[in-house]
Structure formats: C-alpha cells, structure tokens
Design a protein that fits this description.
alpha+beta; 95 residues; four-stranded mixed beta sheet
C-alpha cells in the first residue's frame, strides 16, 4: 500500500469558513481525489496568530511555521493553501 500525503492543519481543519487556508487545502485534496491523512498540528492557534517560535517541529519539517503544510511521501513539503491547491489540481486522480 502506497504511503499517503499528510496534510498538517490547525484545529479548525474543515470546520472553518470557506476562505480558511486549512479548509481550502483539505477541500482541494478531496476534490482532486487524493487520499491523505489530516494531522491537527496547530492546536489552540487556529489562525497562526502568535505562533512564531512556537512550532519548532513544523519548522524542522517544512522550513516555516505556518499552516497548512502538505507532507508528501518521501519528505518533500508544500507550504501554504494556494500551493497545495495548485498541486492538488495538477495531481488529480482520474475517476
């Protein structure tokens, strides 16, 4: 079984407003048919406010501290909802 990408999101994940970055990334992966797991990484910091210096594990993983981050099998990461949305569109699974 192939490893799935991991989507690192804040605690809002899919429950926030449609413009929320974590929700946008999650919905783009779903729409593209890309099987993935969601990992709530930013508990109690849903909008990334005051997170500078408080997410060293995320910085080690992706080089920055903002969510969402898509971790691909093999270790490469895609940072930010707009880049994740673009990646999902480019990698849509045929139905």
């Amino acid at each position: 079984m192939a490893a799935k990408p991991k989507l690192h999101v804040c605690s809002i994940d899919t429950g926030g407003p449609k413009i929320h970055p974590c929700r946008r990334a999650h919905e783009a992966l779903e729409a593209a048919g890309i099987a993935h797991t969601s990992v709530v990484f930013g508990k109690n910091k849903p909008f990334g406010m005051f997170s500078k210096g408080t997410r060293p594990d995320l910085k080690d993983l992706s080089g920055q501290e903002k969510l969402p981050v898509l971790e691909l099998p093999g270790g490469k990461t895609i940072n930010g909802s707009s880049k994740i949305v673009a990646w999902a569109k480019a990698n849509t699974v045929a139905a």
